[in-house]
Amino acid sequence: MSIRLEKGAQRTWLLPLFLILIGVAVRLWQLGAVPCGLNQDEAYAGYEAYSMLTYGVDSWGYTNPCYFISWGSGMNVLESYLAMPFVALLGLTELAIRLPQAILACVSLPVVYLLLTRLFSRRVGLIGLFLTAICPWHIMLSRWGLESNLAPGLLLLGLYFLVRGLDSPPWLLLAALFYGLSLYAYATLWVVLPLTLAAFLLYLLYTKRLTFTPYLAGAVGLLFVMALPLLLFVLVNLGVLEEIRTPFLSVPRLVSMRASEVDWRNLFSLEAYQTLGEMVFGEGDGLIWNSLPQYGMFYRFSWPFMILGGVRMAIRAVRGAKERRFTGEGLLLLGLLCAALVSLSLDYRNINKANSLHLYLLVLLAFGVDWVFDFSKAHPVLPWGVVAVYAVAFGLFVNTYFTTYNDDIDVQFRYGVGDAVAYVKEQGFESVAVDSTVVYSHILFYDQTPQPEFAQTVEYANYPSPYLSVSSFGRYTFGVDGNDLDPNTAYIVHVSSYDAFRNAGYTVVEFGLYGVAYLE
């Protein structure tokens, strides 16, 4: 009998394991090469990891800062800290800086299955896993190192361990750990997380699902301790405290404090609802690194299932609330509403800024597709037809992403700059002028400029500013004047300038969209 149970358990895991392996494969395949080049934010996050690993301080000279100054108005730190072991092992490469995001996205796949199975049923868990594994938004999020894109995976882990902690309180400590880490992934969560946890607390007390235990007190204490450096950071940058420097932790003062991106008045703006609706149900946000317009975030035909799932979830949540009975629908609906409120209140909405919302939307989608399974018990062909349509859409998306996507992203991610910088270093050019289309974080990343050299030589064109523009550091100056060329200077130039430099007698060595021009 025990052998049969073990074999049955193995069979139970075959399908989720198969879906997880598909999801992992599409998230890890050619990770360092697709997308080609680097986004300017992941380049700076990578340089910060390299600087702390090599010199013990970030680019501005702070030891273990709770928030980077970076661009002038700051950048989240968690991506860089998580990348440090990979940079140590692999060097400062595109693959190294993208691995934390990819690994967290892969871990999210079984967590989605476990969470939805625990809250609802194995079928909902399987549908949710399937939809997450093939989801364009989640796949694209996993494949480049934007620091804020760590937030969805950490929020998911926090929620999963919170749900487990309702039955076994020690798990609440892990919930607090991952919720605390999420605060260092994206500053918008400084608003989302307290709002969500307050709503969860009220709901769990109302349904008598949460009881006070030492583990609950420990979880609250742990979360407070993890949030404390950021509370100090806010006080420092409001001018209440002086900046804090210790051998173990730094709380820096930014060059310029950005105004809050959250304005609750936007909740009364029709435009906010229109842009969020177009982003979720339509082509995306128009940013090619976040979504492909022809597929959207969740495949553009998904909106009826998502709406159906939302209605179904709301009915069950209200029914449970009337009976003061805990339901997974009630908990997730509260999380969805809190994330939606903050997303609508943003002054500027795009997919990564609203990233606390999207996993809840995937649950709605899974709920809607599950309803098709329920409705079609007498006609089993229909739900499997839905699965087949999603599988075909996934195949088309993967084919597009791994064939032509690099042709679309190469301009935005400055493809060729890395090879151009490597050539400059190999040739030993002492003076290099860089095309204005290249962001200085790309040069820092690919040049691996020593932090002391950068700190001592950097000149800013617009200091102080929330978004600092660099005039020069080390051997590099930024901006190329075609009418005032220096024969002793090498130039990193865009492909559009190749002919002009060749006509001026320069040798141009080409690397993708950028080349190195110099006089022999």
List SSEs in N-to-C order.
Answer: HHHHHHHHHHEEHHHHHHHEHHEEEEHEE
The radius of gyration is 25 Å
Strand content: 5-15%
Based on secondary structure, the structural category is: mainly alpha
Strand order of the largest sheet: 4-5-6-3-7-9-8
Shape: globular
The number of helical runs is 20
Look at the structure and give the mean pLDDT.
95
Helix content: 55-70%
| Gap between N and C termini | 81 Å
Number of strands: 9
Folded structure, characterized:
With 520 residues, the chain is mainly alpha-helical. It has 20 helices and nine strands. The strands form two sheets. A seven-stranded mixed β-sheet has the order 4-5-6-3-7-9-8. Helix 2 crosses helix 4 and helix 12 (303-322) packs across helix 14 (358-375). The longest helix has 27 residues, at 2-28.
Brief synopsis:
The chain is mainly α and 520 residues long. The chain contains 20 helices and 9 strands. The protein starts with a helix and ends with a strand.
Q: Key terms for this structure?
A:
520 residues, mainly alpha, seven-stranded mixed beta sheet, two-stranded antiparallel ribbon, disordered N terminus
Give the arrangement of secondary structure elements:
Blueprint (H helix, E strand, L loop, with lengths): L1 H27 L11 H16 L22 H13 L3 H26 L2 H12 L2 H6 L9 H17 L3 H12 L6 H18 L7 H24 L6 E2 L4 E2 L18 H12 L21 H20 L5 H18 L12 H18 L5 H21 L3 H5 L7 H11 L4 E3 L5 H8 L3 H7 L1 E2 L9 E4 L2 E3 L11 E5 L3 H6 L3 E5 L2 E5 L2
Parallel strand pairs: 3-6, 3-7
Antiparallel strand pairs: 1-2, 4-5, 5-6, 7-9, 8-9
Helix pairs in contact: 1-4, 1-5, 2-3, 2-4, 2-18, 3-4, 4-5, 4-7, 5-14, 7-8, 8-10, 9-13, 12-13, 12-14, 14-15, 17-18
